[in-house]
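quick one before i forget lol
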Amino acid sequence: MKDFLTMVKKLYYRNYEDSMEAIKEQQIPCAYFYPMEPFEAGNIDAVWEWGMNVTTICTWDKNVGEINYPACRVVGLKEFLADPREVKVMLLHTQMWLPVLDKVLAPLGVDSISLGHLQDAINRRDFMFDNLPRLYDTYACFGQEESKKAYLAAVIGNVSWQIRDYHFAPEPQYMLEGFLPQENDIAIDGGAYDGGTAKLFSSLGAKVYAFEMDKKNYEVCKSKAEQYGFVAENMGLSNVEADAHYNSGGTASCKLDHGAETAHFISVDAYVERAALPRVDYIKLDVEGAEQEVLEGAAASILKWKPKMAISAYHRPYDLWALREYVSALCPSYRFEFRHYPIDVTDYWLSEQDKALLNEYGLGYKIPTSCETVLYCY
């Protein structure tokens, strides 16, 4: 309870709105990290008009010559790291992977804050406050201190928009000791993408059934399935069997009523019956916000076999408690743990140009973001 109350206090003084107001009122010297070209001065103008004391524009060294903004010192990242001068806060452009810069800013005593829409931040803060009892109920379900620490950090980070507030696990995603599929287990991989996790589970000796609705992703997944001996299905998982629309977006392909593409969806329970699977031992879900739908379509299997589960819990703000609540209501004997992972971009997501920048500045391929939180059920 003490740690939870400490988190609540932080929500009051470390939320995005109040942090930005304090920076503005105290006129704390800020830098704005602008990563892209061509340069658009309007982004900096907007921060100035908000009242921020932006003294420096920082960018990748190759872009320095493209930026002309006389009111600010313009420097490449290497020069900034060698001499940040008076800067105490780095305002990060909205590009999702830029929080990785905190790794090199923190040793300089420079805070980093991801810029975003103020009203969105206020709404998120208020939503968390409105649901504190449900957050606490889920927090109290975790057995490991590491789970409690990661969970409270996820709540704070969602409100502060500061990557340093999160607590990331050291192991690869889904690889938490005691929560892996075992040899001869039957494993369902929902949202298989390119088959990377299915390959991993298959290497542990599990019989893996990987579901990927996106046609392009499926072709890559199918190639891995043929090579590594798992089953790949070009279907999405849901709570009903039907054709439905989706948006194709690589790792972020998602079911969408007005999406341009169409796929077939099936429930886990229907697939188990049709494929005559003798049981289900493990379920992993990363289905872009449809996790509860899939759990509803797996209810009979969950009740019958109580599989271990690893469920993505970040696509919707209420996933932080609603997914746990659903599983607990369905099968009260489940216990839970929680972890937060950086995104490993070694083989996907970023372009080769972006990866070259990570290499140039020694930033590594593990990108900390607000995403990739996992609810483990056992």
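fyi The mean pLDDT is 96.
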